[in-house]
């Protein structure tokens, strides 16, 4: 009986210990965390400029995107901690701000890079390693970045429309962003959609 109790205790201990993270994936998630923190700061600065230039619609979009990037940063941070990785303090450089038209182009470039390059590579690396949690993390977050790219592209296509108020909605769970007033998140099915205007 004593042996059985020791065996069960040992099993419980090892099953609750955090699974270590592959070094290549550790680098990818740490870089993604810094990237999301920088993007959030950049979008808040872009929102201020959009308001100054008389584009409340673009300001709402940038506020929504900033919130989404913070949701992503929190997800990356929590994940790293769950795998026993030390998370560096936020050290975000001041954003370079231009006209709203140029800022939208900057946003488009950044979102496209995440969708087609950095986050896609991280997703494929996670598949090679076979780490299901990292696969899901980058899969869900790439969904949100793709929507950011679509929304930024639409705003930039006809910037004059951004002189009117627009509403955007961000999922507090996964950061999915949309201009549709949905009862739940189209990406993760969560029910915590926050509104930005
Ligand atoms: Fe984004
Ligand atoms: Fe979601």
Beginning-to-end CA distance, first to last residue: 64 Å
Given as residue ranges, the uncertain stretches (5+ residues, pLDDT < 50) are: 5-17
| Rg over C-alpha atoms, rounded to the nearest angstrom | 20 Å
Strand order of the largest sheet: 2-1-3
Strand content: 5-15%
Bound molecules: fe (ii) ion
Total strand segments: 3
Tell me what the CATH architecture is. Answer: Up-down Bundle
What name is given to the CATH topology?
A: Ferritin
H/E element sequence: HHHHHEEE
Global mean pLDDT: 92
Total count of domains: 1
Q: Assign the CATH superfamily.
A: Ferritin, core subunit, four-helix bundle
The total count of helices amounts to 5
Largest sheet: 3 strands, antiparallel
Shape: globular
Helix content: 55-70%
**CATH uppermost class:** Mainly Alpha
Attribute tags:
mainly alpha, binds fe (ii) ion, Ferritin, 5 helices, globular, 197 residues, three-stranded antiparallel sheet
How do the helices and strands line up, and which of them pair or pack?
Elements: H1 2-16, H2 23-52, H3 56-82, H4 100-129, H5 132-157, E1 168-171, E2 177-178, E3 193-196
Antiparallel strand pairs: 1-2, 1-3
Helix pairs in contact: 2-3, 2-4, 3-5, 4-5
The structure holds fe (ii) ion (2 copies).
Give structural notes.
Helix content is 65%, strand content 5%. A three-stranded antiparallel beta sheet has the order 2-1-3. The radius of gyration is 20 Å and the shape is globular. The structure holds fe (ii) ion (2 copies). One fe (ii) ion binds next to loops.
């Amino acid at each position: 009986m004593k042996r059985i109790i020791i065996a069960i205790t040992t099993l419980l201990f090892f099953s609750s210990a955090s699974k270590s993270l592959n070094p290549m994936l550790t680098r990818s998630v740490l870089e993604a965390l810094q990237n999301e923190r920088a993007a959030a700061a950049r979008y808040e600065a872009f929102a201020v400029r959009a308001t100054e230039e008389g584009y409340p619609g673009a300001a709402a979009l940038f506020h929504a995107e900033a919130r989404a990037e913070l949701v992503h940063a929190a997800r990356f941070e929590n994940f790293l901690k769950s795998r026993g990785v030390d998370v560096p303090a936020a050290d975000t450089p001041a954003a370079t701000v231009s006209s709203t038209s140029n800022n939208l182009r900057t946003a488009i470039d950044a979102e496209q890079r995440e969708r087609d390059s950095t986050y896609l590579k991280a997703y494929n690396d996670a598949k090679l390693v076979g780490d299901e949690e990292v696969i899901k993390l980058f899969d869900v977050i790439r969904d949100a970045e793709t929507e950011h790219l679509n929304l930024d592209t639409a705003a930039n296509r006809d910037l004059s429309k951004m002189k009117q108020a627009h509403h955007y909605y961000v999922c507090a769970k996964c950061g999915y962003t949309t201009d549709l007033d949905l009862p739940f998140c189209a990406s993760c099915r969560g029910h915590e959609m926050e509104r930005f205007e």
